[in-house]
Amino acid sequence: MFTDPIADYLTRIRNANSAGHRVVEIPASNLKKEITKILFDQGYILSYKFEDNTVQGTIKIALKYDKATKEPVIKKIQRVSKPGLRKYVSSADLPRVLNGLGIAVVSTSHGVMTSKQAKNEKVGGEVLCYVY
To answer: What is the CA radius of gyration of the chain?
Structure first.
């Protein structure tokens, strides 16, 4: 049993990236599915597939690499709000990651979205992770 499923999700992606794997399988949850959709929409992963073959289901993520240098597109993926210390921000205090080059994934009352979308909708929430 994992105490922090989001940290486990991010660690599996980080480890697969550093090992040079093309595909990573992760146990599914609704929050992980939403984060995966955001990573795909922002261009950090190649594709994803939700499989409901088990009780919990799995998420298969095809990682994206630069064609010329074979470097992973995700340079860093970092958990911000942890179970021991949650980080909540208002819409005015939403973070800019790497001066706008990265994204912050935020869980709001309107769903999971990037900090840029949350700022446009004027909602705050819990900052889940930074990706760049």
So the answer is: 15
pLDDT tens for each residue of 110-130: 999 999 999 999 999 999 999
* b/e code 85-121 from CB counts within 10 Å (16+ = b): eeeebebeebeebeeeebbbbbbbeeebbbbbbbbee
DSSP letter assigned to residue 42: T
Please state, in angstroms and rounded to a whole number, the distance separating the CA atoms of residues 124 and 116.
Answer: 11
- On the 0-12 / 13-18 / 19+ scale of CB atoms within 10 A, 18 is exposed
pLDDT, the chain, mean: 95
Under 8 Å between Cβ of 18 and 79: no
How much is the pLDDT for 3?
Answer: 85
Longest dimension (CA), the chain: 42
Is 2 a residue whose pLDDT tops 80?
Answer: no
CB 121 within 8 A of CB 107: no
- The residue assigned the tokens 């998420």 is 59
Terminal-to-terminal C-alpha distance of the chain = 29
